[in-house]
Every structure is written in C-alpha cells, then in structure tokens.
C-alpha cells in the first residue's frame, strides 16, 4: 500500500483474490498452449516459439515447448534437433532463502547452443550454459557450464564422454544398425525389428 492512502480490507482481499485467479488462469493457459503446440507441426511450433522470444536458427526440429519465462535468453543455432521433454532454465530461484538480506534479488543466466547439435529425451539445460556446435547431448543429461564443440555429453551431471567424431564409427559398426528403417511404414518396420531381435 502507498503511504497515507488507506485501502479498505475488503477491497484489498478482492484484489488479491483476482490477482491469484489471474495467475492460475495464466498457468492453465500456458500449459494448454504447450500441449497444443506439441500437436502442431514443427514449422508452426518453431514460429510460435520464435514469436515468444526464443532465438531459433534455421532447419531446426523442436519437439519441446518447455522454454523459460525469459525465452529471449535462449539461443539455438542452425540445424539443431531437440527431443521432447527437454527443458531450458534461465533463472535460479534459490535466492528465496536469502530474501531477508536482498528481498528484490533475482539471478538469471543465458543459454547458447551452437549449430548442428542434437538433444536426446528429457535433457535439462541450466542457466549460464554454452553448448558448442556439432554436439550430442544424451538422454536425461543435466547440462551446465561450457561444453566444447564436437562433444558427446551424458549423465547427471552431464560430462563430455567422447568427441562427436568418435561416435560415428561406433554407430556405423553397431550390431543393431538397420538402414532404410525411417522410410518404412509402421507395420513393415515392426516386421523387420521383430525379425532382427528374434521376437515372434
């Protein structure tokens, strides 16, 4: 309240309830919009995320809608693929423990992703993270800090486990490598996979 101005308690209570209701409706709308975006095509989803402020490069596949309240702090390079469940976080709310000393404090960080980078399912990218170009971020990794170009990152905490160039021969010589599968219709793909893995 402003000094010298008295607001009736009833009016203050109504205003507080309206503010809380507006916040709840905003959360519901954002959740619904995120679910609808996942059903939309990639081009529409990318355009919508760009409109929100996420800086997304060209030729990207984005299967997540979980970007922070500060989407403009996230930059995704060209030709990146981001799997579903991946989350980008640009703020740190642990300041709440120190409200007594700094009640107006907030802490933020940017996220920068280089070109030609792939994110597996359910990756968590923390504030103040720079991921280089030609990187692979493995499923479930929790990433923060500086990730050099040409790195494969896995684990929690995410660690560089090899150079991207070393992964190529491993995949090319993998015993379960099957070529041409992406072009097959679902029933054909199932038939080939069942035969390959010996499943009746």
Topology readout:
Blueprint: H1 9-39, H2 42-52, E1 55-56, E2 61-62, E3 74-76, E4 81-82, E5 87-88, E6 91-92, E7 107-108, E8 111-113, E9 118-119, E10 124-131, E11 136-137, E12 142-147, E13 151-154, E14 159-163, H3 164-172, H4 186-197
Parallel strand pairs: 1-3, 2-4, 3-8, 4-9, 5-10, 8-10, 9-11, 10-12, 11-13
Antiparallel strand pairs: 6-7, 13-14
Quick tags:
200 residues; 2 domains; UDP N-Acetylglucosamine Acyltransferase, domain 1; alpha/beta; 4 helices; 32% helix
Report on this structure.
By secondary structure, this protein is α/β, with parallel strands linked by helices. It folds into 2 domains: 1-39; 41-174, UDP N-Acetylglucosamine Acyltransferase, domain 1, CATH 2.160.10. Helix content is 32%, strand content 22%. The chain contains 4 helices and 14 strands. The chain has helices spanning 9-39, 42-52, 164-172, 186-197; strands spanning 55-56, 61-62, 74-76, 81-82, 87-88, 91-92, 107-108, 111-113, 118-119, 124-131, 136-137, 142-147, 151-154, 159-163. The strands form 3 sheets. Strands 1, 3, 5, 8, 10 and 12 form a 6-stranded parallel β-sheet that branches. The chain has a 6-stranded mixed β-sheet with strand order 2-4-9-11-13-14.
């Amino acid at each position: 309240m402003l000094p010298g101005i008295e607001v009736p308690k009833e009016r203050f209570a109504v205003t507080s309830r309206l503010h809380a209701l507006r916040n709840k409706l905003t959360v519901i709308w954002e959740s619904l919009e995120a679910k609808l975006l996942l059903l939309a095509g990639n081009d529409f989803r990318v355009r919508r995320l760009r409109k929100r402020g996420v800086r997304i490069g060209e030729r990207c596949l984005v299967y997540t809608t979980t970007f922070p309240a500060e989407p403009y702090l996230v930059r995704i390079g060209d030709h990146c693929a981001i799997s579903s469940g991946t989350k980008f976080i640009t703020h740190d709310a642990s300041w709440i423990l120190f409200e007594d000393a700094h009640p107006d404090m907030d802490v933020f960080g940017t996220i920068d992703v280089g070109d030609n980078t792939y994110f597996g399912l359910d990756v968590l990218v923390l504030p103040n993270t720079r991921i280089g170009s030609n990187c692979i971020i493995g499923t479930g990794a929790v990433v923060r800090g500086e990730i050099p170009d040409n790195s494969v990152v896995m684990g929690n905490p995410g660690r560089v486990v090899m150079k991207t160039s070393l992964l190529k021969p491993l995949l090319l010589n993998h015993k379960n490598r099957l070529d041409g599968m992406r072009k097959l219709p679902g029933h054909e793909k199932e038939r080939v996979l069942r035969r390959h893995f010996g499943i009746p």
